[in-house]
Design a protein that fits this description.
It is a single chain. The protein has 168 residues and is mainly alpha-helical. It has one domain (2-143). It has helices at 2-13, 26-36, 40-58, 65-79, 88-113, 121-161. Helix 2 crosses helix 4 (65-79) and helix 3 (40-58) packs antiparallel against helix 4 (65-79). The longest helix has 41 residues, at 121-161. The radius of gyration is 17 Å and the shape is elongated. The protein starts with a helix and ends in a 7-residue tail after the last helix.
Length: 168
């Protein structure tokens, strides 16, 4: 449990250090939390608290915060589908789906709340098109950090948490 919580908090820290826009571990953290915490309430609570703590440090609360948190809550729920069987293909596929879900929900929030775009279908399309450059970083970050978090935890579990495991 402590290892899981520390990994989630570490992922939240990735928002605070310098990084390209959207290349953070937050999406991976949400997917990871959903996949590894046995208690569904805890699987939702720990990543959301970690996200909120990083938002407090960054001053990240804004008009679209509800949409951001809703997107990450859905990603946690997507992680629930990994609790039974984890594989590279399933994790990779859900990582790509998580990036897409976050892109769609968060940019809908920008269109709906920020007043930057006309409240028309054309304005919504314009909002999504303007966000495409950030989507590439989101996908790259989610894939990279899912590899680090899921792979890292499996290694820790195998070699540090299992009493008879050997590194040879």
């Amino acid at each position: 449990m402590i290892v899981l919580i520390m990994m989630v908090l570490g992922a939240a820290f990735s928002r605070i250090i310098p990084h390209p826009w959207n290349f953070t571990a937050i999406g991976a953290m949400a997917l990871f939390g959903g996949a590894y915490f046995n208690d569904k309430k805890l699987s939702m609570l720990v990543p959301m608290v970690a996200l909120a703590l990083s938002d407090l440090v960054l001053g990240g609360f804004h008009s679209t915060t509800f949409f951001v948190y809703a997107g990450f809550a859905l990603i946690v729920m997507m992680g629930w589908f990994l609790t039974e069987k984890k594989s590279v293909a399933r994790i990779g596929g859900l990582s790509l789906a998580a990036s897409s879900v976050f892109f769609l929900i968060s940019n809908f929030g920008v269109w709906n709340m920020d007043g930057m775009y006309a409240m028309t279908f054309g304005g919504l399309v314009q909002c999504y098109v303007a966000a495409i450059p950030f989507f590439g970083y989101q996908v790259a970050g989610d894939l990279f950090f899912c590899t680090v978090m899921f792979g890292g935890y499996e290694l820790v579990k195998k070699y540090a948490l299992e009493p008879n495991a050997k590194l040879a």
